[in-house]
Amino acid sequence: MNFQYLLFPCLGRLPAGRVFLAAALSAYGVQAYAASADVTAVADVTDVQGDTAASSALPEVIVTGNPLGAAQTIAPASVLSGENLLLQRASTLGATLQALPGVASSDFGPNAGRPTIRGLDGDRVRILQNGSASFDASALSYDHNTPLDPLVAERVEVLRGPAALLYGGSAQGGVVNVRDNRIPKTPVIGVTGRADASYSSGSREKAGAAMLEAGNGQYALHVDAFHRQSADVAVPVELPCTRPGAAAQARRICNSGNRAHGGAVGGTVFFDQGYLGASLADYHSSYGTVAEDEVRIGMRSSKAALEGLWNRAGHALEQIKLQYSQGDYQHTEYEGDTAGTVFGNQGQELRLEAKHRHWGKVHGVWGLQWEKNDFSALGDEAFVPASRSQSLALFAQEELRTDWGKWTLGTRLEQVRVRSLGGNVPGQFFAGEKRFTPSSSALGVLIQASPHWQISSNLSYTQRAPKDYELFADGPHVATATWERGDANQRLEKSLSLDVGAQWQAGAHRFSLSAFASRYGNYIALLPTGAIIAPDNLPEYAFTGVKARFVGLEADGSLRLLGAGGWWQPQVAGAGALDLDLRGDWVRATNTSLGQALPLIAPARLGATLRWTQGAVAARLGFDSYAGQNRVPVGARSMAGYTLWNASLTWQQDWGASQLKWYAQLDNLSNRLAYSATSILNQTAPDKSPLPGRSLRLGLRVDF
Predict the structure, then answer these.
(1) Quick one: 537 exposed, middle or buried, by C-beta within 10 A (0-12, 13-18, 19+)?
(2) What is the predicted pLDDT for the residue at 617?
(3) How far apart are CA 419 and CA 68, in angstroms?
(4) Average pLDDT estimate for 240-267
(5) What is the pLDDT of residue 77?
(6) What domain range is 102 assigned to?
(7) Number of domains in the chain
């Protein structure tokens, strides 16, 4: 293959003026480099654990365990870990992350919610587990949850903005990586672990998790397990319920209970030049769908993973990293005790990354990714056929360091095949195969303007191959209360995106601001056609390519009001510290072909938290205020604004060689009735599933 074509397939299509304009604008993002097991990201990486750097210079932030940085050369990123993850975690990944700038949740009730980033959801946000695919069907439908429970997560890494270079068009909106260290990356000496137990009043949830790691420096073993069980979620208003045995009216969301359990075992062998590890994981859950009072979903998922790293791999190569994983996922919908539609997915993924040695001031990584998914849907409500999807991609990212910062250039070239295998009824679905050759490129620049300031800019061009349901869907979709129809003649989805931003830090004070704009030449949207399909009398919605535009702002920061490095520094020893955390985001998404808003876009929001620490005690009081979402498509329901308050208290104590952390978290302390603008339920089943009411969570975490 011609080297020049591989490295520059898309940049040649971009107007040169725009490329140089993006470089000249040079505002700030995050610069990260890929290919190693430990990725160093500089700049707009926000560690929302709550710890504040004491140095006046902008620090390096380590994003470990996956190539998040290489997924996008320059882009804002957040890391949720430590105490903040402990207090923010919920039963879904979307609800856990929705407080981060630019992130919302699809919110199909309390039990299903994928993260949405900058107004993009579904197969435009790539969800990973330890850097590899999760092999689920959560992007197919809003009522499908992800088989990733925050109870066992060590940290969650979120990259906001186009991240197609490493992961293809499915990372067009960003990447979410859940890290649980099931394959240890660093040697373990002795025995370490943690255990956590909690109770939540709003859902009467009992949850617990435990993790144990042991090793002798050469061998490491990891074992974890979790369990959660909850009843119907409490809300501030009475809601009807037709489920047998339930009250006809109650201040609870009918059919919102949840049971989930799972665990994993993994191990790693370390040697002088790297490591080789493997893991096996299992996940089971059963939860109510909320949209229908008597329908529950039983979900199971198993995953096997293999990972190896080889340093000093040769004369030309500095490092080689290999990841292989395979998963088996099944999702069964039950009406009472009767099994209905069954969705399944069996997937495999292989990633090979090679980091070459420095060529003068140039350093980079080249890689290969292969992925295969066998999807099936059996039952009366199967609105998509069985299908087989396969992709093969080559990618490269190069970095040129300078005295004032760095340039980055990356590209990805891909081949995608999507084949429909048909359904139970002959002629029900399109039968055949579609092939696509998407490509993506990005050019970025990072400038270290001063010890306190970093600025950057990134221009990216992304192509996404349509998914099987966008091509072949043809049937009733209960979750959306529509008849969904795909288009087998669908073309590549194409976007041109510009990210700019800035970050400042001085001592305990920090602030970051990011702005973004994306234009789509063929945005695949699910739009009403105006037709009504018999015999179910459902409105027809078709996957249609339109022109679209996304623009937005994200900001967050922290000010030390009291304490060391703060505005007021009392001379009393042990006086503690008082910090004010600020956050906000805004996105505007437009279907420019029709001149109207795109659906299910999060409204503008502002939030603040006062955080006080003194010794082993920490307390927080904060709010998030959401504007009303009146900018909706024609015929859609607008949503009122609201403000949610929360508070927490933690106390840490030593217990021998272990550390105990007692915590109490009070959510929606004013018991405000509110509805999420990003939930399809507010369009298909109005007022059926408000956001949870007041809830007190009490818990204890032990680290040893």
Answers:
(1) exposed
(2) 97
(3) 30
(4) 96
(5) 85
(6) 3-703
(7) 1
**Residues in contact with 531: Cβ distance below 8 Å, sequence separation at least 6, in sequence order:** 539, 540
343: left (phi over 0), alpha (psi -120 to 50) or beta: beta
**Residue 681 CB-density burial (10 A; 0-12 exposed, 13-18 middle, 19+ buried):** buried
Which among 482, 607, 598, 619 has a CA at the least distance from the CA of 551?
598
Mean pLDDT over all residues of the chain? 88
DSSP string, 310-334: EES-SSSEEEEEEEEEEEEEEEEEE
pLDDT digits (tens, 9 = 90+) for 637-669: 999 999 999 999 999 999 999 999 999 999 999
Calculated CA dihedral for residues 626, 629, 630, 633, nearest 10 degrees: 170
CATH number of the CATH domain containing 420: 2.40.170.20
> Phi/psi class of residue 252: alpha, beta or left (left: φ > 0; alpha: ψ in -120 to 50)?
beta
Reading the block at residue 347, the tokens are 């997937």
| Amino acid code (one letter) for 499 | D
Distance CA 571, CA 82 (A): 30
Single-letter amino acid, residue 203: S
Spatial contact of 154 and 183, defined as CB atoms under 8 Å apart: no
Omega into 535 within 30° of 0, i.e. cis?
yes
Q: What single string gives the DSSP state of each residue in 457-474?
A: EEEEEEEEPPPHHHHH-E
The 3-state DSSP class for residue 82 equals helix
Radius of gyration for the alpha carbons in the chain, expressed in angstroms and rounded = 24
H runs (alpha helix) in 52-208: 68-71, 82-88, 93-97, 164-167
Residue 135 backbone zone (phi > 0: left; psi -120 to 50: alpha; other: beta)? left
% of the chain at pLDDT higher than 70: 88
Residue 595 C-alpha from the chain's centroid? 29
Q: Is 446:454 a contact under the CB 8 Å cutoff?
A: yes
Residue 37 has pLDDT above 60, yes or no: no
3-state DSSP assignment of residue 62: strand
3-state secondary structure of 674: coil
Q: Is the pTM higher than 0.85?
A: yes
> Is 586 exposed, middle or buried (CB count within 10 Å of its CB: 0-12, 13-18, 19+)?
middle
